[in-house]
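Support request, please re-run this one:
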Amino acid sequence: MTNSLSEPHLLIPEKPVQESLEIVVAEETEFDSSIPLRRSLLITIIPTVLLPLAFASVLGYSIIQQRTENEIEKQLEQQSLLASKAASQLVDEVGKISLDVASNPLIIDTASASAQKAEFEGLVELPIEELEKRFADTKLLEVNKSLNDYLVRVLKNQSLAEIFVTEKNGFVITSSGLTSDFVQNDEDWWQNAKRDNLWIADPEIDKSANTFAVDFSQAIIAPDSGEFLGVIKTVIPSTTFDQLGQLLKYANLIGSQQVQLLDTSSSTVINTLTADGPSDTQKIIGGEVIAQVAGLLFDALQKQGSNSEQILQDIQNQYALGEWELSTINQDDTEEQELLSISFSYQGKQYTLSTIPKLDWVSIAAMDISEIQGTNRGLLVIFGATALVLGTVAIGVTTRLANQLSAPLDELSYQAQQVSTGNLDITVEPRGSTETQALAQTFNNLVTSVKTLLKERVAEQERELELSDKFAQDQRQSKEALQQRALELLMEVDPISQGDLTIRAHVTEDEIGTIADSYNATVTNLRTIVTQVQAAATQVADTTSANEPVVQSLSVEALRQAEEIAVALERVQEMAQLVEVVAASAQQAETAVQQAAQTVAEGDANMNRTVDGIVAIRETVAESAKKVKRLGESSQKISKVVNLIGNFAEQTNMLALNASIEAAQAGKEGRGFAIIAQEVRKLAKQSAQATIEIEKLVAELQEDTNDVIATMETGTDEVVTGTKLVDETRQSLNKITAASVQINQLVEAIAQSTVLQSKVSEIVTQTMIDVAAIASQNSTEASAVSSSFGELRQVAQVLQEEVGQFKVS
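Re-run finished. Output below.
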């Protein structure tokens, strides 16, 4: 029934068939804002044509640009390697000159003879200052014009700055010109050449040649004995390295390209070549950083095979070089050392550094990166112009094609808009491509089908109108019956709100019958719980009433026990007095001891009765505690059932709310049912409120029950303590009995034991005082237990009154 109410209603036409047809046709479908076909074609096709064209142009330029940059970087590497090889070749040629001179027999014989002459004349023992003065004019040990002329020819033929020869003691024996000193053995180059046979010094101003040059020192060795005979010094001016320009003429230095030779040990520029030719600048290309990189590159070459890779990694970490690449270049088989070459970018320049064999020099080739990147800018203009022309042609062709394709569709779109306004007499003339003609024919068929469909739809709506009227009448009758049954249910369950749990609702087969059945189940459970609570409360009241006389009797017995213990105390004091006069009458002492023993026996019997009474109290209190705990468990069950009732009330409230919603959807016919639903909701709220009150009452009952349980547990503990104390008292009395027996046995020796008996009497007196205090405490605790039982009885009576409000039978 509910599902029928929620179904959507059909449209019921109220106008004639022809007018309804016009209204239905006039309804327009709202489309999202869209783009015309012509513009859509242009937006789609033009980018499809232009983007590949632009991508191809950019890709072609990028490939050519990258290839050009790689070629220029390769060219820089070749220039650096070529400069390295050219410098090595020049150095080898100079070294060959020095070696040829050192191998000349005339030079060897002169060096040997000069050394013998110097030793014979004692020149070796003279100080340098004196030798310089003696040979200040010629700076020669002995003038040998033929040898001097030979060296002059060598100097001119090889474009040297200076060449001279010393014997093994460092004295100059022949030279191409006047040297700065006569004695040379105190110079570093002389000592290094003697040690290493060949020594190439750092570029500097040579004092003898008075020019910026590079010094080569070659040892003279006797061919037969290998004896050191002297040193030949050859000075090469830096201008000699201008010949590199001739060697590099095929390298085609252009633009900002530069090639420079650098001595890494002294950071001295040996020679610089540019696109315009040799340069006299002493400024290092790239500054101090490039000089340090060159030094580290030479160190890596020297330590190759050990930690050279770490050194090169340090270069990158320290100077942050961009796109650096290291390569090892193997020389010819005649070479003993391979080359290291490193390429990198730094501060707007591209660099390639290469080592030079046998030297601590490095060749540097550099070029501005901006110039490298701008090499193919003309090509970029060509690519751009080509792409622009082709793009213009593509746009023109695409525009014309879009116009041809969109014209028939535009006309078809206009005719479709006419149809959407309600004009179904429109027909479209097929024209254009095969697809557009087929689309126009399909459109005409669609208009015809719509006309037919609208006529059929009007007839169908008329039939549905008749069915809807019949359905509404059936629905109205069903609602009236449901409303009547709901009123009957309200009347039946109304006494429940007054506490009468004996009421039962009449269960029917409709929806209201389901609600009535739920109410009956809820009331049954509630009545069972209330009955259990009433029985539990009655049991608690009866138990407390039955146990109260016992507790009062316990209190009286404890009081009487205290009185008897007081009497016993008085008798013990009398015994002490008898002990004082024991020397006068032993017989009286014996009698008093017997009386004391009898009194102790009576006290022991009283103690036994007290212990039995206390044990009985403990058992009674334990039983009462168990019953109170069962009462607390019953109250917890009540709380669970009350929660269940609250859930039923919430479900009933929700069901009534759903019924109200369904009644509101039904319109006027559902107003009566809505009133019933509201009454049901009110009843559910009243049930929920009653449930809340019951929950509060049960919570108070649980709290009082917990307090009673705690009080009984405390009383039980105190009873146990009293039992222990009474047992200790009985043990003390037993000790007194034993002492009395001992006194009776020793009465004959009372005179000798008077002092001892006096002390024993004091101990007995103190013990009896303690017993009296314990008995008084037991009396107080028994009174407290009696008071607790009275309070428990009052709580049970209150619970009976509260639960009595419900009618269960």
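The chain has three domains: 2-28+421-477, 69-372, 511-803. The chain is about 65% helix and 10% strand.
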